[in-house]
């Protein structure tokens, strides 16, 4: 380690992609034994910086000094060898191998140097030690694929510990974790830190940054704006640095007049998943679904939109029963569903922004759509501009956008459809604070125009800030209902834990 405790020192790192300067002279320093948060708007260059450190990409210029040695570029093997570990959001593990096999993947223990035979007993024993070390109650022999995402991430951390990583990088690790899993992760991070490991932690959840980071660096437009000790700044201050302006009202809710019932779901059942789901949604209303991860909210949305089958129940749109057997049926009935897992379900990564944004519309109007394609593209452009989509143009491939910007394209796509009922599953996951406000304003516009909107959110503040009425689910059942005025965190938590409230 360098004398002043600085483990990593990045200087003037630059990376250009066709049409985009992703990094424009980035400087950042991380000390051993600190959790260093990196914040910035979508497309600010956070993931690109990480990719330089893990050797996934080569910088155009600049230097990376690590553990006293200066590099102009790293490759994945070298990065790992010198002690840089990374927990990617898309996990790099192999589901059909065991936990132990995954931990030692590429660095297996052999019976002897000359024999090419794995020492499974020792690998399992060592894995058990590593797992116990981070208080993870999982068998080394368990198949990885049987574990939840949170535990799989912990296995990645075991890998990093085993490789003696001095720096562990995490790019939005909590975005798909439940609150409890995230909590476990923070506990393990704190332990790593005590041992002198440096952690780079990227998140759009500023409350997590505040609670867990010692130091924070804010990036904007491919540059590092400022680094400071977390305790010296407020979250509002970070927001100001990130987006370059003040955000007065994080939840700019505007109430619309409520009209007729647009969607009515009665006695919806799916064995073992959904139990007697009943609710109505009115024109002009924002209905929030709260609950813990796995409570059945996404499953309800998937049943209503034909993504999953259901056993019994009826769905009425504008007072008329509709038979929904596949997604197309729900699209034709005027229901738009913005899925939680956008990469898998929402976008065609090898197509352009314009194509993805207009795909629903083209589908709906068939050949006639060609006539107004120009108009649609114009509207797509407008919505993307409102959400501050960062792209080199409407023809850029969606797969090359930053994570958060891909999500904005999905939102644009559905906003362009003529739907009257919108179901948004975690609409602002992975989206920066500034763009969140724009998404909320678009929701305001939708309900002002007479649409009914359902938002499924795990963030309590968001659902309380934006929904007129909140339904709470627990284990496939609706366990609570309250208006925005009645809602408190305690009341939602109570119902989310399975206690039914007396209405
Ligand atoms: N392979 C690539 N080709 C072209 N442009 C790219 C490529 N990878 C990233 N970019 C661009 O570089 C910029 C920075 O992207 P990056 O993924 O680093 O942002 P980010 O800060 O991680 O954002 P987010 O919060 O949305 O994840 C974006 O404008 C992005 O479109
Ligand atoms: Mg990113």
Automatic annotation (TrEMBL):
It is found in: Cell membrane. GO terms for cellular component: plasma membrane. It comes from Pleomorphomonas carboxyditropha. InterPro entries: AAA+_ATPase (IPR003593), ABC_carbohydrate_import_ATPase (IPR050107), ABC_transporter-like_ATP-bd (IPR003439), ABC_transporter-like_CS (IPR017871), P-loop_NTPase (IPR027417). It is a peripheral membrane protein. This is D-xylose ABC transporter ATP-binding protein. Pfam families: ABC_tran. The keyword GTP-binding does not apply. Belongs to the ABC transporter superfamily. SMART domains: AAA (SM00382). GO terms for molecular function: ATP binding; ATP hydrolysis activity. PROSITE patterns: ABC_TRANSPORTER_1 (PS00211), ABC_TRANSPORTER_2 (PS50893). CDD domains: ABC_Carb_Monos_I, ABC_Carb_Monos_II. Its main location: membrane. Keywords: ATP-binding, Cell membrane, Membrane, Nucleotide-binding, Repeat, Sugar transport, Translocase, Transport. Residues 8-246, 256-500 form the ABC transporter domain.
